[in-house]
Amino acid sequence: MVSFDQVETVSAEKEQGMSLLIPDEVVRATEMTEDELRLEFACFLYLQEKLALSKAARFVGMPRIDFQMELAKRKIHINYSVEDLERDLETLDRVFQK
Hints:
The protein is an alpha+beta fold and 98 residues long. It has helices spanning 24-30, 34-47, 53-60, 64-73, 82-97, and strands at 2-3, 7-10, 15-18, 21-22. The strands form 2 sheets. It has a two-stranded antiparallel sheet. Strands 2-3 form a two-stranded antiparallel sheet.
């Protein structure tokens, strides 16, 4: 069986882990490696807006930009709202006014 040891539940005080066991029959049916399954799971959770970009990238153990490229290959758009843009613009204004 494949075990996703890196499924994480984060508390304010310490990190705790959760294992997810996938039966060998299911793994064989997918014809995917553990890393490929982990990437698919992370992409799915990101698409469902259950995981932020940085947490999804950390879950699969890749730099954020590499995870973004994986999302692009799947035609999954980056979750970036108008509010996110406005916050970023305000931050840039503060930084460059100094």
